[in-house]
Design brief:
Length: 160
Amino acid sequence: MQNQTMKVVADDAQVLARLAALKDMTVVELKAQWQALIGTPAPNNSRPFLEQRIACRIQELTWGGLAKPAARLLDALADEVEGKKVRQSVISDPRNPVIGTRLVREWDGAEHVITVLKDGFDWQGRRYKSLSAIARDITGTRWNGYRFFGLRDIKRGDAR
């Protein structure tokens, strides 16, 4: 156990020394470090960018990278931002109630019941990706769906 503790302390000291050395490097030296650690040419000449990414890479190589679930989530987020449907989405909005929950909202004297699905919502037998789309169909105006269905507090002075 003591040997393991000594190795961790040595690793920590080595990483700290390498990180401190980045501050004294020129941009040309930082770009060479980038090439050596990341394996591609540096994407730009921004000193802060290069220092930060190289520092992250040094720490990643010493102590390990992201956990697999976190890496998968980031990949899925990147796909969603880029509009790709390569992977089945693992992203779910934490504001959504548990699957199967029924949301009830009265509007203009009519009761509207929405069922929470795994990948969206059901209203009147139609599937929707967002509560905002349902709220817009019900009211004819733009609403934040979470506010319309009472899942998010309405801030003072904010009608929608």
